[in-house]
Amino acid sequence: MKLRLQFLDNIKHLAGTPLPVTASSSASCPPGQLPKGLHGIVLRVANQWNLHSRESLVYQGKYMYMRFFPTWHFLSLFRKTRPAVSVKFNKEMTFLNECGTYLQTEYAKRKSVIPADYAVWRRKITMYVKSEFIRQWRSLNTTTGSFDASGGTPVGVAKDGYYIVHLSKMPSNDELPELQREINAAVTRTAELSWDSILKTKPATTDQGETATPIG
What we know:
Blueprint lengths: L1 H9 L29 H9 L8 E4 L3 E6 L14 E6 L11 H8 L10 H22 L21 E6 L8 H17 L2 H6 L3 E2 L5 E2 L4
Parallel strand pairs: 3-4
Antiparallel strand pairs: 1-2, 2-4, 5-6
Helix pairs in contact: 1-2, 4-5
């Protein structure tokens, strides 16, 4: 009931917003700007009702895993940019898991040892992830590629839609290049998916118990 009241109270913020967002909507992520996520109230509804389908998982790595929702998915209709990207953090991940004695001592004195509890860490990593994501996405957002039977975006071309990047491990500055490689791999893998595989292929189970669309 509380969520429903919040939805009704916040739905007015969507008034005047050109919805739904479709392929014919104007591109709202121009060069020099980072992609945004979903309208807040819709994101809260999605999280509350667990609208993140298992089939949406397209990549799993050491530092992150990524979900993709095509343009016709309910969530994509409420994205703020084309494409849209949200970054989520593992709330169970602490500074004490994999760090030196100095960090363990310093953060043990503070109110929390969870990186995601600090705005400075969330902002730093969020901006990094979105910056690397859109750089790779634009490099693949070309007009070359082979169309599959569905006639959608050619295989190998970056796909519009809504992406969620989940951080499984908070990288140190030295580990950022590894995170960058995983972001590149995730965006590339999604671009290489055929629409037929997204629509028809049964998901495969990963080692973590999640599912990911088989690649090739």
